[in-house]
From TrEMBL:
UniProt: pyridoxal 5'-phosphate binding residues: G104, S105, D240, P304, T305
Gene: bioA
Function noted in UniProt: Catalyzes the transfer of the alpha-amino group from S-adenosyl-L-methionine (SAM) to 7-keto-8-aminopelargonic acid (KAPA) to form 7,8-diaminopelargonic acid (DAPA). It is the only aminotransferase known to utilize SAM as an amino donor.
Location in or out of the cell: Cytoplasm
Cross-referenced Gene3D superfamilies: Aspartate Aminotransferase, domain 1 (3.90.1150.10), Type I PLP-dependent aspartate aminotransferase-like (Major domain) (3.40.640.10)
Pfam family, any one: Aminotran_3
The name this protein goes by in its record: Adenosylmethionine-8-amino-7-oxononanoate aminotransferase
PANTHER family hit by this protein: ADENOSYLMETHIONINE-8-AMINO-7-OXONONANOATE AMINOTRANSFERASE
Residue sites binding substrate per the record: W44, Y137, K269, G303, R390
């Protein structure tokens, strides 16, 4: 019988039967037929501790015995209070208020709504549009789709149904680019702001790593320049660190590479170590305090049913404790060195005629090919070699769990290289 499960991003006519996963341990998961696969993607980048981490499992179990859920409207509880304090402690200085929600997309919706209402409350209701970047991906809900790359993104079909926002070119200068090389990107951003700032509430970006839009790696200078432009034009700066947060770029948050504090920061994916869906939208006191006032309009009208879910908050707290106690940043550094050594220093891959570029940042590596056809069949090839890779478009990438051992990472990179042999 055909399964009634409708799978994400699947082409229904050509999709193959989806293998069932029955369990997992460390960087591997196990299929129904007994095969184990080394997960090179840590399940869409969220399972940073790998599968069945004993401390995370125990945290959920313990919390389940006390309180699985209660509404956050009019009530509070320790896991939410403690997690908010922890997020304020570890995030860039100045972010002091935490709004919880249940997924990255909703966390971004909250951020965008907050930015528009902020300007409204300060007497600038005309600032109600957003400025995003080409190659951006911010989620699949309607509001998020409107700020994803309108051409290469996956939502072009909906263009006429979405609100119109502004877009600046995707930054071209890479992570290691000099200030001078970044200037052209910042000039392009300035031109859009000069023309449209009167109606722009916020600039939003995935700092340093535009992930699902093509793993475009950009420079800390760009973040600093964007911060300065936002201040100049009275535009809020929103960092979508749903993918980059919790170590993926080599620091806890990508913003730290630049010493920049955004006005609003969105976290999800790695927040709970992937063990439950949750998100947090952090704001500075400048943003928060604009909502302190007498009129009914001052309330922020948003409240996802599962915001601050105790199980999710509790496992997020445990995830953070493990991250710090087991010095994950040092592990990420090791993963980075292995990825560089295998994919960059060994130049065989970069010189391959089908390969356009190879990039590594933190615990992320991508092989960009010239045409998507060059990746046709690579997922099956990897699976035959015991590795779970899931390329999209022209990008074959790995974002391993941080607990992935050195020899396991070399297995992943070997499969990536062998595909091109
Ligand atoms: C995954 C992702 C989102 C959307 O998060 P969901 O939890 O899938 O809704 C938003 N922004 C970025 C940068 C992401 O990588």
């Amino acid at each position: 019988m055909n399964s009634p499960v409708w799978h994400p991003y699947a082409h229904l006519k050509t999709q193959q039967r989806m293998p069932k996963v029955v369990g997992g341990h460390g960087a591997h998961f196990t299929l129904e037929n007994g095969d184990t696969l080394l997960d090179a993607t840590c399940s869409w980048w969220c399972m940073i501790h790998g599968y069945r981490h004993p401390r995370l499992v125990e945290a959920i179990r313990d919390q389940a015995e006390r309180l699985c859920h209660v509404m956050l409207g009019g009530l509070s509880h320790d896991p939410a209070e403690q997690l908010a304090l922890e997020l304020v402690r570890i995030s860039p200085p100045g972010l002091e208020h935490v709004f919880f929600s249940d997924s990255g997309s909703v966390g971004m919706e909250v951020a965008m709504k907050m930015a528009v209402q902020y300007h409204h409350l300060l007497g600038k209701p005309e600032k109600h549009r957003l400025l995003s970047l080409m190659k951006a991906y911010h989620g699949d809900t309607l509001g998020c789709m409107a700020v994803c790359d309108p051409e290469e993104g996956m939502h072009a079909l909906f263009a006429d149904a979405l609100p119109r926002h502004h877009f600046a070119p995707a930054p071209r200068a890479g992570f290691e680019a000099s200030q001078e090389e970044v200037q052209a990107d910042l000039d392009a951003l300035r031109r859009v702001l000069e023309r449209h700032h009167r109606e722009i509430a916020a600039l939003l970006m995935e700092p340093l790593l535009q992930a699902a839009g093509g793993l475009n790696m950009t420079s800390p200078h760009y973040l600093r320049g964007a911060r300065a432009l936002c201040d100049e034009f009275d535009v809020l700066l929103i960092f979508d660190e749903v993918a980059t947060g919790f170590g993926r770029t080599g620091r806890m948050f990508a913003a730290e590479h630049a010493g920049v504090t955004p006005d609003i920061l969105v976290l999800s994916k790695g927040l709970t170590g992937g063990y439950l869906g949750h998100a947090a939208t952090l704001a500075t006191s400048r943003v928060h305090d604009a909502f302190v006032g007498d009129s009914a309009l001052h309330a922020f009208m948003h409240g996802p049913t599962f915001m601050g879910n105790p199980l999710a908050c509790r496992v997020a707290l445990e995830s953070l404790a493990v991250f710090e106690e087991e010095d994950y940043l040092a592990r990420i550094d090791l993963l980075n060195r292995v990825l560089r050594q295998e994919l960059l220093l060994d130049t065989g891959l970069r010189d391959h005629p089908e390969v356009a570029d190879v990039r590594v940042l933190g615990a992320t590596a991508v092989v960009e090919v010239k045409g998507g056809a060059a990746l046709h069949g690579v997922a099956d090839f990897a699976r035959r070699h015991g590795v779970w890779l899931r390329p999209f478009g022209r990008w074959l990438y790995t974002m391993p769990a941080y607990i992935t051992r050195e020899d396991e990472v070399r297995r992943i990179t070997a499969v990536m290289k062998d595909w091109f042999r």
